Amino acid sequence: xxxxxxxxxxxxxxELAKLPGIGRKTALRLALHLLGEEKTxxxxxxxxxxxxxxxxxxxxxxxxxxxxxxxxxxSNPKRDNGLLCVVADMRDVMAIExxxxxxxxxxVLGGVIDPINGVSPNDLKIKELVERSIxxxxxxxxxxxxATIEGDTTNYYIxxxxxxxxxxxxxxxxxxxxxxxxxxxxxxxxGRSITNRVPFN
Amino acid sequence: xxxxxxxxxxxxxxELAKLPGIGRKTALRLALHLLGEEKTxxxxxxxxxxxxxxxxxxxxxxxxxxxxxxxxxxSNPKRDNGLLCVVADMRDVMAIExxxxxxxxxxVLGGVIDPINGVSPNDLKIKELVERSIxxxxxxxxxxxxATIEGDTTNYYIxxxxxxxxxxxxxxxxxxxxxxxxxxxxxxxxGRSITNRVPFN
Lengths: 201, 201
Fold this sequence. Notes:
Chain A is of the alpha/beta class. The first copy, chain A, has helices at 7-16, 24-36, 39-55, 90-99, 126-135, 149-161, 187-195; strands spanning 57-58, 65-66, 83-87, 105-108, 140-143, 168-171.
């Protein structure tokens, strides 16, 4: 006999439990929840997931996820096309958009250089970034990669690849978080905060 | 602009966030995980959920969830058809099956009497239980409902409805958990444990 006396339920639990952070107990709870709801609830969920996975593409321009060939940021005439922000992941685009403090356009690399996990520069959209830096007219390219060794390596690699670029190349500031007490900040971050101090005005 | 620059993603997050215990942040993480995996991963998940919701039915006999008209427990010739266990929910069937200490058949009420939340005896499979108790030949009917006021009320109601029943009507034992220290058991449970003491043999 199957674990749950229903092979259909068992299969649904198996698939749900493959999702990150969802164990078999949670998966069972979700499946039983769907069984207790109207059939349309499950239909709407599966439709939305199928549609998303089938129809979402990468923007041909910036490689952010998009519903169409060119994403809503690249096609927005109000965005500043002279200011480019390079990020590792589409999650980072969302995070920066939520701050409302950036009005330029993006370039999503799809990761950072990470030899230990087999990610080489060729696996990332770095070639495409170099091409954009030649083809388009950017005033400034902001590197907004993770503050990790891999992020720093990628920053350095990109910096070398953009030798021809005449505009500014900047990186986002590292320092203590807003609202943080100094005593709880780690030494490296606090050190960077002091080194990269800015004029008080 | 949509919250996530993709309406397809937004819809998927909306639907995932309707699941119990899944907030919008977790929903986004799950959706992005699916986007990062092969398309077949999403297909297998949505197929399994659709199949489950469309094809799972209630067993015509005991009202447990089932892949077919009669569930795998009711149709199993090795189960003891003279011993019936009445439970509130299909989850309880799973819990009892996991103990491997019951070899009879079940009757799933679909809940307990709960006037505050609008659950009356007519909303439960109590009439069907009474019919089974007349039609089938049970030696014993075990009431295994939750140890709550609602569970006790339902026990009492069923007991009255089964007046004609000639066999034994029993309830599962309440007492301290196996492995529990007496000092940490609540008073009511410990009190029941003493009242319902059994011969040491």
